[in-house]
Amino acid sequence: MAENGSYFAGLDIGGTTVKTVLVDEAGDLAGEMVEVRSQVKDGYEATFGQLELALVQLTANIGISREQVCGIGMDVPAPSSDGVIWAQANLAPDWVGTNVRDCFSQRLGGVSVYMTNDGNAAALGEYAVRKKHHGGLLLVAPGTGLGGGLVLPGGRAYEGQNGLALEVGHVSVPHREENGELPKCSCGLTGCLEAWVSLMALRRRVGIELAKTENAGHPLNDGSTVEEKAFRLRDFAKAGDELAISIFRQQGRILGYGLADLVRVFDPGLVVIGGGLAETVGFRDDYLGWVMEGFEERAWPVYLRSPINPEKETTQFEWASGGDSSAALGVAFSAREMFG
């Protein structure tokens, strides 16, 4: 039986898959998430075909026509401005310089489309699942790199004049390797927060630590690749391994230190930590404690407690809770706000 009313789609375009959702006029999830292959390396037209396939499945699942989808939000895994892709990232070359937003809107007969990058979409998703939260929200998400996004009070992502704001992984932190050098970041600069807090950083740190004489007998020195060692490090930390814990403790403290400066600039009130660590149940309370240690080392007291009411926290920290559909839900939420 068909559902009445208007609906809004969220399309989270990743390097491998597209995660898609529908929300209704009240902003509630309608049906289940649909996931299809993204085919981004085959060109944007190939991805458009996959997006249409997902829309067909989404609408069929709840018995509505596509005409009832009154707005679409989508996010892309690349820098963009006003619908235009600025850099190739993991996409095919034909994405660069293309107004993907307008092209997709035209392909669907003029349906209104909102587009942002994946970091903003994830932040919007965390905002959307917190229905009682109406203040700001800063998301940081350690993964392969360190992404993030900022949602302003009321639910609008802050994207900057050119859509390039909130590259949180590339703020500088004054931490050096044991030999006094600044670590090199994937962006080509040195000393970036991402060079300390990311999967890439874990790989570098694991290699450095396991090369030390005192760690020669560690179980991770088993002939596996550094990528495999870094992947297994979280399980070692959960089991209480001292070396693994020391690596994550360093990462958490440096993340907290960097967050103190971001909070000083934006004063979001709520900081959400996402990425793979958000799904870890074994030691994430400890990790958040290390983040707070770094934050308290760098932050002014006013960003911890109100000087008027010491009982009130001025900055709260939470783990991400939106799950796999968070970014798709975030852009669907924005489409509803903009086109509903």
What report would you give on this structure?
There is one protein chain. This protein has 340 residues and is α/β, with parallel strands linked by helices. It has two domains: 7-111, ATPase, nucleotide binding domain (Nucleotidyltransferase, domain 5), CATH 3.30.420; 137-321, Nucleotidyltransferase, domain 5, CATH 3.30.420.40. Helices cover 35% and strands 17% of the residues. It has eight helices and twelve strands. The strands form three sheets. A five-stranded mixed β-sheet has the order 3-2-1-4-7. A hairpin with a 3-residue loop joins strand 9 (146-152) and strand 10. Helix 4 (199-210) packs antiparallel against helix 6. It is globular and about 65 Å long. It starts with 6 loop residues before the first strand and ends with a helix. The model has no long low-confidence stretch (mean pLDDT 93).
Salient structural properties:
340 residues; alpha/beta; Nucleotidyltransferase, domain 5; five-stranded mixed sheet; 8 helices; 12 strands; globular
Radius of gyration: 21 Å
Count of individual beta strands: 12
- Number of separate helices: 8
The fraction of residues assigned to DSSP E strands is: 15-25%
State the order of secondary-structure elements, H for helix, E for strand.
EEEHEEEHEHEEEHHHEHEH
Provide the low-confidence segments as ranges.
none
Assigned CATH architecture of the largest domain: 2-Layer Sandwich
Provide mean pLDDT, rounded: 93
Structural class category? alpha/beta
Q: What is the H level of CATH, i.e. the homologous superfamily of the largest domain?
A: ATPase, nucleotide binding domain
Main sheet: which strands, in order across?
A: 3-2-1-4-7
Quick one: CATH class of the largest domain? Alpha Beta
Shape: globular
Overall structural domain count = 2
Q: Main sheet, how many strands, which sense, barrel?
A: 5 strands, mixed
Q: Enter the CATH topology name of the largest domain.
A: Nucleotidyltransferase, domain 5
* Terminal CA distance: 23 Å
Helix content: 25-40%
